[in-house]
Design goal:
It contains 7 helices and 4 strands, in the order H-E-H-E-H-E-H-H-E-H-H. Strands 1-2-3-4 form a 4-stranded parallel beta sheet, sandwiched between helices. It is of the alpha/beta class. Helix 1 runs parallel beside helix 2 and helix 2 runs parallel beside helix 3. The protein has one domain: 3-Layer(aba) Sandwich (Rossmann fold), CATH 3.40.50.720.
Length: 221
């Protein structure tokens, strides 16, 4: 085991950690991008600086790690990059727009990356957890200027949280380990049945939305 300091907002620490780990183990077969935090607040309430900080960690931090690890994986024509997204990367939630939008970005990065590196023998998996009880939710960053008008949105988010089915962290870690490095791993892996229910509902909603306005859509062809 080798434990090293790494701050995804500081590229020099990423390079140093990858270099030290490579020297110790010879090569890195898999990398899990798991750093992140959640900014709480509506679109109007969260300051632009808070938006930037959210993306600096959750989006640019992921890109920085990917860019640092890809050269050795390309050289070997092998490797597995896992990116921790969230079911919030599929379904946005009230008072969580900055967080969920950062995860929407991660989903797009992972999906595009997978198509870019597949011919090079490198796999990509986007992990989408939902319904976990961890210290993550005890460290939510608050909006700079909470506004009373958005109390209904906060109430809706609180009610949503009470309906979620809790998932087991250790079982999820085992599931990630099981698919790491296997042949033909999934592009997306939902962890927790509650998240799967969420995304299936979103897919049905999308289909209904596009069908309702299909006449307008086709009229512009």
């Amino acid at each position: 085991m080798l434990v090293l300091p790494l701050d995804v907002t500081k590229p020099e620490t990423i390079r140093a950690a990858i270099s030290a780990a490579t020297e110790r183990f010879g090569q890195l077969d898999a990398v899990v991008n798991n750093a992140g935090y959640a900014q709480l607040g509506t679109v109007e309430e969260v300051s632009l600086d808070q938006w930037r900080d959210q993306y600096e960690t959750n989006v640019f931090g992921v890109v920085a790690v990917i860019q640092a690890i890809l050269p050795q994986m390309r050289q070997r024509r092998a490797g597995h990059i896992l990116i921790t997204s969230s079911m919030g990367g599929q379904v946005s939630l009230p008072t969580m727009s900055s967080y969920t939008s950062s995860k929407f970005a991660v989903e797009g990065i992972g999906e595009g990356l997978a198509k870019e590196v597949a011919p090079l023998g490198i796999d990509v998996t986007i992990v989408e957890p939902a319904g976990f009880t961890t210290p993550f939710f005890q460290n939510l960053r608050q909006a700079a200027t909470p506004l009373d008008d958005y109390d209904p949105a906060r109430d809706a988010m609180a009610a949503f949280g009470k309906t979620s089915v809790r998932a087991d962290v250790e079982k999820s870690m085992s599931a990630i380990a099981d698919i790491t490095g296997i042949e033909n791993p999934p592009l997306r892996l939902a962890l927790g049945s509650f998240g799967l229910t969420m995304v299936r509902g979103k897919l049905a909603e999308l289909a209904e939305n596009y069908a309702a306005y299909e006449e307008i859509t086709r009229a512009v062809d």
